[in-house]
Design a protein that fits this description.
With about 270 residues, this protein is of the alpha+beta class. It contains four helices and eleven strands, in the order ααααβββββββββββ. β7 and β8 form a beta hairpin. α1 crosses α2. It is elongated.
Length: about 270
């Protein structure tokens, strides 16, 4: 799917340039030709576009697809409305040369806003489809039986052995046992992954827990944070997402018994 954070941030930068140039030209021309009141009127027209772009910046900092969608839609609507006020009503009273440059940049900005919005809406639809599929898989198969590590490892090559405790796994933690993730489906069925205090990064190529055999796991997929009071799992903008109880999450608190889906595998919190 055509989507990633660097691409989104490229469009955010392109919007800054293509909407910043006409904004500067329009405001300075209005001040020079129409005086203070003209500048204030122009600022009122352009303020909606500015506010929508600021919302996009907030969304990028907060990493929220819904805020991105609102900011992209607001920017696009502001541009459509701006064409009438800026280039139909006001442009005839301003210098034609600079306003021609402003018009070209403004149209490019509209195009970038449209593509940005399409990427975000496409991602939201994709996430919804994936969440529905994962929920259906959970409903269909239910929790898988847990096998001892020795049985799960019997058919696996030595070189592929992950970082796990070499001991039988129980479905329930022993009294005072360290919290852990236990594979209940997928390539790591029956294996136990202890969760240390603090952050436990999970990924295919790097992290405290490495799922090198699961190609659906991102290089840095998610992180499970353990404190004295709670366990929280947070997705690290992975390609295929992190699911708790069949629902795709950005961040969620988990408790013993919860099922976390990471890539093609499912793991029980114990």
């Amino acid at each position: 799917m055509l989507y990633n954070k660097p691409l989104l941030r490229l469009f955010v930068f392109l919007l800054l340039i293509t909407l910043g140039i006409p904004g500067y030209i329009y405001l300075t021309q209005s001040a020079a030709k129409l005086g203070t009141q003209g500048f204030l009127d122009a600022l009122a027209v352009y303020s909606f576009i500015i506010a929508a772009y600021l919302l996009i910046l907030v969304a990028e900092v907060g990493d929220s697809h819904y805020l991105r969608a609102m900011g992209g839609l607001g920017t696009l609507v502001g541009c459509i409305v701006g064409i009438r006020f800026i280039f139909i009503l006001d442009a005839p009273h301003l210098e034609p040369g600079p306003m021609s440059i402003a018009f070209v940049a403004f149209i490019l900005g509209m195009a970038f806003a449209l593509v940005y919005l399409a990427l975000i809406v496409g991602r939201l639809i994709y996430d919804k489809i994936q969440a529905t599929k994962m929920a259906a898989v959970h409903d269909e198969r239910g929790p898988a039986p847990i096998r001892p590590v020795e049985e799960a490892m019997a058919s696996r090559p030595e070189s592929a052995a992950p970082k796990v405790e070499e001991e039988p796994v129980s479905a329930e933690p022993a009294a005072g046992a360290e919290p852990a993730l236990v594979g209940v489906a997928g390539a790591y069925l029956g294996q136990r992954f202890p969760l240390k205090q603090g952050d436990n990064f999970i990924g295919r190529a790097e992290g405290d827990i490495v799922f090198s055999e699961d190609k659906q796991v991102s290089r840095r997929h998610c992180v499970v944070t353990r404190t004295d009071a709670s366990l929280k799992v947070r997705d690290l903008d992975s390609t295929n997402g992190t699911f708790v109880g069949g629902q795709r999450i950005t961040e969620s608190e988990v408790v013993p018994g919860d099922l976390i889906s990471i890539g093609a595998g499912t793991y029980k919190v114990v």
